[in-house]
Amino acid sequence: MSDKARGKYTTVSIPITLYNRIKKLIEGTGFTSVSQYVTYVLREVVAAHEEERYEEPFTEEDKEKIIEKLKRLGYI
Amino acid sequence: MIPKPHGGRLVNRVAKGKRREALLEEAGELPSIEISYERLIDLLDIAYGAFSPLEGFLLQEDYLHVLYDMRLSNDLPWTIPVVLDADPDEIADVKEGDDIALKHNDETYAVMRVEEIYGWDKKEYARQVYKTTDPEHPGVAKTYRRKELLIGGEIDFIGEFRHPLENRILWPIETRVLFREKKWRTIVAFQTRNVPHRGHEYVQKAALTFTDGLLIHPLIGWKKPGDYRDEVIFAAYEALVKYYYPKNVVVLAGLLMNMNYAGPREAIHHAIVRKNFGATHFIVGRDHAGVGDYYGPYEAWEIFDEFPDLGITPLFIREAFYCRKCGGMVNEKICPHGEEYRVKISGTKIRKMIREGKIPPEYMMRPEVAKVILSFNDPFVH
After folding, report:
1. What is the ipTM of this complex?
2. Over 80: is that where the pLDDT of A4 sits?
3. Partners of residue B178 in chain A, C-beta under 8 Å
4. Which letter does DSSP use for residue B182 in this model?
């Protein structure tokens, strides 16, 4: 199945001035297009934003049981 | 800081209490398929969160995204398709929307909601995942032996899994509690399917120099003939940790997971799984998860450039060797001396000596480790 058929890409508008700036910036780097660079940077930024406070998925009771097991197995 | 699981939530598909009882009863009435031991291991990795965010075997949309883009359809990095195969005959009466029981050796392990049944091109799978269609490649050979259809859908684990090394296997929720108890904020994970030689020890200690703890995480699962048996790897590491590591900086725990030998793609997969176990850093070896000469020596490092959003930091530590002039284990980045002074630590050479019942020289392997390996009648997989 082609990339297009799978709906792999969509279009986002950026100012032409920014486009030109990026185009210049990526010259001689491993990035082969402005789109590739923008995708890379956005993924990095989005992942950083997603790293908000995370609560571990266990209750105090679960935790006590796990600690008991870890002690029995010699890990603690 | 211990990272969030991949996708933000640690998956738990292990049914407990009354829900488990109800599902067990229901499973007895459902059509069932027999799954291989390897798929049972996948099932466990999904159920216990090692494969978070997967809640089941991949649907076609995710499968195609993983195959071609190395990402799930929600853009999260994921490089190895986790798919369940079935013969058309055995699922002739099963349609999308049905529940089925998944059995191994006639024992029921899970209930699965069949959301989708679809075909796959095994050769294309091999080309994308293994970068070769050569049936001599152990991962490709396994792919070609798989069944003709794929079934996608969520699972609920209801079985009781027993393993000779079950007391050495920890799941992500357990390592996360353990790291918290130890008050470790940075944890480097080391993937292995080998007994430790001095090169491994050097790499681990180099990483441990700037992290709070080290998770030595041997794979327990399918391996190719000639690899060391799981119990041998554990015993060898226990000896190394006992004699050569400070107390309270190492956790040695088994990871029940299949080895695919998919080189660069598998390096990313290994890193994602270690993130789910709570590791902040992951040591990526030269030719990580490679086999033969199917992958370039540094391909497994280069692929990380494509994943700025992985959420775990890869550590690329160069292969160690013994330098006679330096008088110790070093690597090419820190040793200025010529080849004539360098002694490479070869796993193949060590394996040959072990087969002959010989203790390798101390610059290759710690004598305490070698003695433990030699205490086994047959340390290798056949």
Report:
1. 0.86
2. no
3. 66, 70, 75-76
4. T
